[in-house]
Design a protein that fits this description.
By secondary structure, the protein is of the alpha/beta class. The chain is about 40% helix and about 20% strand. It has two domains: about 5-100 and about 240-270, Rossmann fold, CATH 3.40.50; about 105-235, Rossmann fold (3-Layer(aba) Sandwich). Helix 5 packs across helix 10.
Amino acid sequence: MHPLYGVLGNPIAHSKSPMIHAAFAALTNIELDYSAYCLPIDDFEGALKALMDQGLQGANVTVPFKENAFRLANHLTVEAKEAGAVNTLAFKKGEIFGHNTDGNGLMCDLKERCNVELSNRRILVLGAGGAAKGILGPLLRQLPSEIVISNRTFSKAVSLAEQFNASGNVLALDWADLTGHFDVIINATSSSLHGEFTPLPCAMDAQTIGYDLMYGAKPTVFMDYLAQQGVVKTYDGLGMLVEQAALSFEFWHGIKPQTETVYQDLRQILLS
């Protein structure tokens, strides 16, 4: 019997994690069984402990359980503490180790696949929920000149900026008050899921980079909007999905798999 791993969520049928981790296992010659587990909304802890009793050695965690996993973990990485959420769990001798690879996954995709320079750049992060919180720490470690957080509920943006402004130049601005030019604009809202995007009053041009944490077969509404404003380079979050998975794999196995073939295969599946 191969070591057991899986992804925990509800719903979970849509998850690409089993496909991604099967590919990583083949690339690294590591034998494992990786499955998707739909856990009950009202008993994450009980269901997780039952899986641990069955021999589960590690798990990815997705919506809506990342904060549940954070509370259950006995040991947390810096990234998990910053995010206040866990997307990767490892189980050793009854101890639960929690990590968050979302932010560093985004950094890998931006820097290595998209060739985006982040140091000394003015960055706009749209959204102030869990997705935004998970990327701010890693973004700040790239030493941007400024990170502006904007959110429809302005108080949430203010709260998030206050949590991180000791680590760098972070401030909150109301959506209507966004001014000046941004080098990088990251959409961490769910607007692309709903097919609607509220226009931005700030300046952008052909040098601006746009990145949407969401992904799909076609460019997202956010990407389309930026293209209409003259932005040439826009990216969706498929690369982030693959890179955060690779970092989870490394957390468990000590080996970071090559990601490009997996990324290209997933892109082709989306397009077909």
